[in-house]
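Example 4.3 (complexes with small molecules)
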Amino acid sequence: MMLAVDIGNTNIVLGVYKKRELLHHFRLSTARQSTVDEYGVLIHNLFHMSDISVKDVEGVIISSVVPPLVQTIVDMCVKYIGKDPLLVGPGIKTGLNLRYENPREVGADRIVNAVAAIEQYKCPLVVVDFGTATTFDCIDGDANYLGGAIVPGLGISTEALYQRASKLPRIELEKPKKVIGRNTVHAMQAGIIFGYAGQVEGIVKRIKIEMNAPELKVIATGGLAPLIAGETECIDEINPLLTLEGLRIVYERNK
Ligand SMILES: Nc1ncnc2c1ncn2[C@@H]1O[C@H](COP(=O)(O)OP(=O)(O)O)[C@@H](O)[C@H]1O
Ligand SMILES: CC(C)(COP(=O)(O)O)[C@@H](O)C(=O)NCCC(=O)O
Ligand SMILES: [K+]
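Answer. The structure with adenosine-5'-diphosphate bound is encoded below.
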């Protein structure tokens, strides 16, 4: 078995693979102050509840966009799983041709998303990951990673209204019935959800023009993808496990 770990700014997602098959996946909060032993307890409990033996884990791969947590999770793997994990970063074979000005700058989650999408779909394509931030990753017809766009995530945007405007409450990220809200909560939900869908549409439209690829496929992933995908025609498919799949592929390429 192989353990794939994606450390995002909000959630740490873990996947347990047996060859190409995802047997289990788990989602933890990204707690920057948690210790090696605290993460060890979580992993121990999750494995125990799922009847996974640590002894069966032959290797671990990690992608992280939260530098302060990397050493903690690496140390946890060594101490509680007995494996030195592979880190997605410089020196690792991804098979991806990165056209970023500085390839080291690209988030590891964006890299593994792109690797998985190229394997699973026909290029050209765009991956939209609705996480803490929403990222757009553009892949051309020859499977080159071109770059993309980064926008504030749905959660961050919603939180900003609450934090910066005294009379705006904290709201649930839920789709309202109408775009014309007749109370504060509905008005905020309308603005956030429908505004976000419009933003995604606008960016995808510009990407298609800039890449001269009107037929390009748009794949959505990340915790909040289903909320927005229903509100726009521009998303072709939701693939919630794209990041884990990318980690599995990169792991195979470095065995
Ligand atoms: N299965 C899910 N259903 C609903 N919301 C989710 C789910 N998974 C994650 N979320 C929410 O989506 C947001 C982004 O999560 P995620 O995609 O894991 O972000 P990141 O990769 O930045 O950690 C968070 O607010 C999280 O609570
Ligand atoms: C853009 C991101 C913050 C998205 O992270 P996430 O929302 O998945 O937590 C992350 O991919 C990142 O820190 N990237 C580095 C900058 C870049 O990709 O150019
Ligand atoms: K992510």
